[in-house]
Amino acid sequence: MGERARMLATVPFRVWAVLHGVLVLAQVGLAGVLLDAALGALAWHGGIGGSLILVATVQTVLAVPAAWPGRMPVWPVAVSAVLVVADTAQVAVGHLGLLAVHVPLGMSIVVVQLAVAVRAVLPAAVRRPRSSAAGPGLSGQGLSGPG
């Protein structure tokens, strides 16, 4: 598979991961608005929160072909799957009003999803061929000079 085809195969995951990142940032903003007791903020916060379970599920599915050998690393698949569980727990503890769990779990979700989104938009690190086991400067002429 050519380099362009490999890159195109990851585009749906990359776009979705950024959308997911925007939604978790919106949750942070809405949580702040909740502190001002703004009308409708709780409904929006709850609505987006509930939708994040589906968003994380779709992200997990899109991460599989994106992480196919020769494309992105595999860790976004595992992390996306963990986010499905975390988002589900987050909605549950939010409905129960357990803010001592809801707030730190929410911040963890934000940090993890933003890490996934940043990784999704950054190009993969260029792999350099490994040099010889001796390394530079140790192949005969190295530190002591010729002869």
Please, could you describe this protein's structure?
By secondary structure, the chain is mainly α. Helix content is about 70%, strand content about 0%. The chain has four helices and no strands. Helix 1 (about 5-35) packs antiparallel against helix 4 and helix 3 (about 75-95) runs antiparallel to helix 4 (about 100-120). The longest helix is centred in the N-terminal third of the chain and has 33 residues, at about 5-35. The chain is elongated. Residues about 140-145 have low confidence and may be disordered.
Please write out the topology.
Elements: H1 3-35, H2 41-66, H3 75-96, H4 99-121
Helix pairs in contact: 1-2, 1-4, 2-3, 3-4
Question: What's this, in brief?
Answer:
This protein is an all-alpha fold and 147 residues long. The chain is 71% helix and 0% strand.
Distance between the termini: 48 Å
Beta-strand segment tally: 0
Number of helices: 4
Helix vs. strand class: mainly alpha
Order of helices and strands: HHHH
Question: How much β-strand is present in the residues?
Answer: under 5%
Share of helical residues: over 70%
Please outline the major beta sheet: none
Mean pLDDT across all residues, rounded? 84
Low-confidence stretches: 138-145
Q: What's the shape?
A: elongated
Q: C-alpha Rg, in Å?
A: 22 Å
Can you tag this structure with a few keywords?
single chain; 147 residues; mainly alpha; 71% helix; elongated; disordered C terminus
